[in-house]
Design brief:
The complex is a heterodimer of chains A (210) and B (452). With 210 residues, chain A is an all-alpha fold. Chain A has helices spanning 3-24, 31-51, 55-58, 66-90, 103-125, 133-149, 161-182, 186-200. Chain A is built from eight helices and no strands. In chain B, 23% of the residues lie in helices and 23% in strands. Chain B is built from nine helices and 21 strands. By secondary structure, chain B is of the alpha/beta class. The interface between A and B is large, with 79 and 77 residues.
Chain lengths: 210, 452
């Protein structure tokens, strides 16, 4: 297999598997597609990591320079916190969560996992195609997953898909650029976790999509 | 330099996108139904004040299950599905001192959304105007004396306290205001000392009255000509009062409390509740009836509701007799029907009878269903927009639920969701499997090298 295809196929397979899983996630009767989607994603991830010389690097865990870490990490955290504050204010909520409740840890873990999956794995697999294209492609895969997950909402909210897709695509691209230019998955991961903690930290129970 | 410019532009675009998402994702009014998704937000007056919202029965529709009771749920907001005129019990609790501001709110779609209440001591403000006053709040008794007619004039709901003079002074300033009055703190209005208070309540010409755990005020109800909302707890052993003379009543929430304490004792005493005594058939505007409470098991006969042709929303909770849905009242014009029997082991039969309720927009069956219940019949309810079934029914009868989905593509079916948390498991499995496989590969390669 050509090296380009060897890098591309796991990323495409993982993204496709996650979309299939997300589409079937809200339909208890679609157990087979749900399992198949999850299995495809896990197999593609496992296969790529097994062949990698340094799996941690494949997921984006590189050690940034000390200076860069000292300056960039607080900046990324601040970006995540600021975005979270803005999101809360726009929803008519207080600027900060009143406290940290039961869903806080889970929301942080979900945000972190999304970063590892898309900015880490998918973007890492595509890095031979230059600095910008992998960021956009990974953000596109993330957007497809998000839209598929919210395609069958169980709650009264009906997400505006155009806004949701645009927001995830642009936000994901920015997170991707963080990884690309700051040199490590730790930066977008920190920003995403900070955003999720600020936005969902005070939820005692998980929202319907979680 | 080029990288910095790129990053700066990217952050600006990110901010614009967030703005677009946050303003575009607001839940719209569901077309074709009277149900309105509403967010009740509780912004802190300042960053150091933590306020939480909790809501309790009777009419609680949460974002996860339309009538899930979220008592003591500490959140800064609550997503609800409401119909105009729905009564909402709200509580705002300050975490620092535990002080709780409680009041009842009648949902009006004209109020700007999200419903961002602000608490100012014992007062709740909406869009800068005082809409509710809780005299039970610490130092709440001094509030009416220290505020002018401008503040008192916008009050829609007041909660009375244990101090008679404060109540009388506040109600004196709210005469003929049509305010909703919450006297749910065990007032005995048949006592001599409380009659002045009862007269003051009548003089306020209330549009809403909360009579939980209070007694004696029912005699005054015929004098409250503008009463539209009534929440009442009633002991099952006492004959129900007649509401026939309060002709403007639109919504009645009746909680039937246990009579003599235990079910065995009640049954021994032959406790029966006769709904006919309420005279609901003489209330032309009654559109909502909520029957709940542990004593609902003593309801004599639901056929007493057959004449309530004007009724649009009916909720029956904790009613053990309702084992066969063919015994439901023949109110085929209902738009909302909820049957809540979560604690009962009875398996409900006769689900096919529901096909006659062709006007239903919202149907909640929060009860155990008989194994042979034909769920697919619900697919015949063409106007249905919201269907709530227990999670285990959704799981076990997935084929039937899918058939309903196909028949009613615009209907939301609430139950379970395997959400985004599963990405964590998928990632963990993939990474672990990859690392194990890589280790095997490496050890095999090493062995080959050693062998070579």
């Amino acid at each position: 297999m050509r090296p380009a295809a060897r890098d591309l196929l796991p990323a495409v397979g993982f993204s496709a598997g996650m979309v299939v899983f997300a589409l079937a996630a809200n339909r208890p009767s679609l157990l087979a597609p749900r399992i198949a989607g999850a299995a495809l994603a896990a197999v593609c991830l496992a296969g790529a990591l097994a062949k990698a010389n340094r799996p941690a690097v494949t997921l984006g865990f590189t050690r940034p320079g000390k200076t860069r870490a000292w300056f960039a990490l607080p900046l990324c955290l601040a970006v995540g916190v600021a975005a979270g504050m803005y999101y809360r204010t726009a929803q008519g909520r207080s600027l900060f969560p009143a406290g940290l409740a039961g869903f806080c840890l889970l929301s942080a873990a979900i945000g972190g996992a999304e970063e590892l999956a898309y900015r880490g794995f998918v973007q890492g697999q595509l890095r031979r195609w230059g600095p910008i294209l992998p960021c956009i492609a990974a953000a596109g895969a993330h957007t497809a997953y998000k839209c598929a997950l919210l395609a069958m909402p169980a709650g009264p909210e009906r997400p505006a898909f155009l806004s949701l897709a645009l927001g995830t695509l642009i936000g994901g691209t920015v997170f991707g650029l963080m990884r690309q230019y700051l040199g490590s998955i730790a930066f977008p991961l920190a920003a995403h976790v900070a955003f999720d903690v600020i936005v969902y930290g005070d939820l005692a129970a998980a929202p319907w999509w979680a | 330099m080029k990288t910095q410019t790129l990053l700066r532009n990217a952050f600006v675009i990110f901010g614009v996108a967030l703005l677009h998402v946050t303003t575009g994702c607001r839940p719209p009014v569901a077309a074709g139904t009277a149900l309105v998704p509403v967010r009740i937000a509780s912004p802190s007056p300042d960053a150091n004040t933590a306020v939480t919202v909790s809501a309790e029965a009777p009419c609680r529709y949460s974002d996860r299950m339309p009538f899930e009771r979220v008592e003591g749920n500490e959140r800064a907001y609550a997503d609800l599905l409401l119909m105009p005129g729905d009564l909402l019990p709200l509580k705002f609790q300050r975490k620092q001192d535990g002080n709780e501001l409680g009041f009842w709110y009648v949902f009006s779609p004209q109020d700007s959304q999200p419903l961002a209440f602000r608490s100012d001591g014992p007062a709740a403000l909406l869009a800068g105007k005082t809409v509710a006053l809780d005299l039970n709040y610490p130092n709440g008794t001094g509030w009416p004396g220290s505020h002018g007619p401008g503040d008192m004039g916008t009050i829609r709901a007041i909660r009375l306290c244990g101090d008679m003079e404060t109540n009388l002074a506040a109600l004196g300033r709210l005469a003929h205001s049509g305010v909703l009055i919450d006297c749910s703190d065990q007032f005995a209005f048949d006592r001599e000392g409380n009659r002045r208070l009862a007269d003051a309540i009548v003089d306020a010409d209330p549009t809403g009255l909360i009579l939980k755990d209070s007694s004696g005020l029912e005699r005054y109800l015929p004098r409250m000509k503008n009463l539209t909302h009534l929440v009442m707890t009633w002991p099952a052993e006492k004959p129900l009062p007649s509401l026939a003379q309060t002709e403007r009543l639109q919504a009645v929430y009746l909680e039937l409390s246990p009579a003599t304490g235990t079910q065995e004792q009640d049954e021994l005493h032959g406790v029966k509740v006769d709904l006919r005594r309420l005279g609901l058939d003489r209330l032309p505007r009654l559109h909502t009836l909520f029957l709940y409470g542990k004593a609902c098991r003593y309801l004599r006969d639901l056929a007493a509701l057959n004449d309530l042709k004007q009724l649009r929303q009916l909720t029956i909770a904790d009613c053990d007799q309702l084992r066969d849905l063919s015994s439901l009242p023949r109110l085929y014009d209902l738009t909302g029907l909820e049957i809540i029997n979560g604690d009962s082991d009875a398996h409900i039969t006769g689900i096919e009878h529901l096909a006659r309720f062709q006007g239903l927009v919202k149907l909640s069956l929060f009860c155990k269903l008989a194994d042979n219940a034909d769920l697919r019949v619900l697919g015949k309810l063409k106007d249905l927009k919201i269907l709530v079934l227990p999670k285990d029914v959704i799981k076990e009868r997935a084929g039937d639920v899918d058939a309903i989905r196909k028949a009613l593509p615009n209907c939301r079916i609430y139950g379970m969701c395997m959400g985004s948390r599963w990405i964590i498991a998928i990632l963990a499995v993939g990474v672990t499997a990859g690392l194990i496989r890589q280790r095997f590969r490496r050890s095999r390669t090493r062995k080959r090298l050693v062998a070579a």
